[in-house]
Amino acid sequence: MSNPIKRFTLYIKAGSDGTCVGDCPFSQRAWLFMLIKRLKDQTTVATINILNKSDEFLKMNPKGKTPVLFDHKENKAVDDSEEICTYIDGLFPEPPVGCNFKETAADAATSKIFPSLCKMIMNKNTSETPILKQTLTNELVKVNAYLETSKYPFLTGDTLQAIDCAVLPKLLHVKVAGKAYKNYTIPNELESLAKYLENAEADPVFAETRPLDEEIICGWGRHDILKEL
Ligand SMILES: N[C@@H](CCC(=O)N[C@@H](CS)C(=O)NCC(=O)O)C(=O)O
């Protein structure tokens, strides 16, 4: 008997060969979320080559971005990582994973990491690089200070929670792309942050969704970046 179709298909960005797991932190967020909601058995993960999107994909998802979640039961596509988390949490409140983290202390400590990273990497005016590196470091100092007060291995829990799904993929980009393109290293004294990243890397759920470093470097490499090493 053939396998019945799973309820959900999660489309994520493919990597450099057009099929492996790509570097999209938003795709990783949605995938992590499906796993922490224990929906692995109900989810097919499909990689999308964003350089060659099929007509079928664009028909289902006219914005053409990843991630997209398709709910086969409801015949509905959800085309944004945050909306995917909200949609799934609405359908499956159990287990609770702390979805209402907006404007909490953990959110305030982590929400500017990615914009700061993007500014630093995309900057072409080398005289501004030191200040942009410092701005990113200031954001990481905030995360570290928050983690120092937390009694958990993750931001708000003993296991990965919704906020970790949003934050960890971006921190991975700081570590990998920051180093590869701007020779930026996370300061050693941010020990709680280092431990948080270590805890994530040791977590099987995070490991399952983690793009290879090469893919993160290659993904950023598609932008017009001034490498400063
Ligand atoms: N707000 C969206 C952002 C998604 C996004 O920007 N995805 C990028 C990949 S990281 C994308 O699909 N780019 C392909 C394109 O624009 O064609 C979300 O969080 O889901």
Total domains? 2
The rough form would be described as globular
CATH topology of the largest domain: Glutathione S-transferase Yfyf (Class Pi), Chain A, domain 2
Main sheet specs: 4 strands, mixed
The run of helices and strands is EHEHEEHHHHHHHH
The CATH class designation of the largest domain is Mainly Alpha
Give the amount of beta strand, in percent.
5-15%
Radius of gyration: 18 Å
* Poorly predicted segments: none
InterPro entries: Glutathione-S-Trfase_C_sf, Glutathione_S-Trfase_N, Thioredoxin-like_sf
Pfam families: GST_N_2 (PF13409)
Domain GST N-terminal: 24-89
GO molecular function, one term: chloride channel activity
Quick tags:
binds glutathione; Glutaredoxin; Glutathione_S-Trfase_N; 4-stranded mixed beta sheet; alpha+beta; globular; Thioredoxin-like_sf; chloride channel activity; 229 residues
Write the layout of secondary structure elements.
Blueprint: E1 8-13, H1 25-36, E2 43-48, H2 55-60, E3 68-71, E4 76-78, H3 81-91, H4 105-110, H5 113-122, H6 129-149, H7 162-182, H8 191-201, H9 204-209, H10 213-221
The structure holds glutathione.
Glutathione is lined by residues 13, 24, 26, 50, 64-67, 80-82.
